[in-house]
Amino acid sequence: MNSATLSTTDPAESPLASAFRQALPIILGYVPVGFAYGVLAQKSGLSALNTLLMSALVYAGSAQLIAVGLFAAAANPLAIVATTFVVNLRHLLMSAALAPYLGRWNKTRLALFAAQMTDETFALHANRFARNETGPAETFGINVIAQSAWVGSTALGLAASTLITDVRPIGLDYALPAMFIGLLLGQLKSRQHLVVAVTAGALSTALMLAGLGQSHVLAATVIAATIGLGVHAWTSRRSS
User: Fold this and answer.
1) For residue 92, what are the domain limits?
2) Which of 59, 89, 157, 207 could form a disulfide bond with 39, CB atoms 3.0-4.6 angstroms apart?
3) How confident is the model at residue 61 (pLDDT cuts 50, 70, 90)?
4) Last residue of some domain: 176, 197, 225?
5) Is residue 10 part of a domain?
6) Chain segment 148-195, per-residue pLDDT in tens
7) Are 228 and 198 in contact (CB under 8 A)?
8) Which H or E run contains 16?
9) Distances in Å between the alpha carbon of 37 and those of 11, 68, 102, 155, 161?
10) 215 and 116 in a common domain
């Protein structure tokens, strides 16, 4: 099967239409979570302007939700910055994984791309870039559409915050894990990928129950990826 068969891009489809089609699963996950963030931010005392600016400039769901919780608890600003910094350390791994595909991009384009990279767009771009689909129009189209959905859903949450007292009974917190599961399924190309995914999930759960805190995801990712790399190197040596 050649690379043209594996490609998800229709030659007759415009870059914008293709970007929207590929970003649709992300949009479906972002809308309920961004909505919940808008509601919680308003109830924590954050102004509407600052709530929207966080979605536009910070653009990190987990970091924003954590920051809102700390803000509501009147935490020290330095503690909020330090906590969100640790939570977002995973971006070091994501950027390292995508960097080999973007070697020909200039610094301005790289900076704009990095500013809009999230866990979800990373998963989508990792698959696209592996198929040599690195066109800037489609790539930035996906990013802009995804962030617009996040900011828009935040605005909806702000507008509805006076009508909703608690977002937990609505079940909005399940939308993001469901979206990640959908994105993960598209990346499982072999048994090794499946083993790494299951190992990372099990380790993350175990480390969280052990009280490791927000860093359990980063630790589990590094450990599982290392195991996967070791298994791949071992099987490659045996087959050669």
Assistant:
1) 16-176
2) 157
3) confident
4) 176
5) no
6) 999 999 999 999 888 876 666 666 556 556 666 766 776 677 788 888
7) no
8) helix 15-43
9) 38, 8, 32, 10, 10
10) no
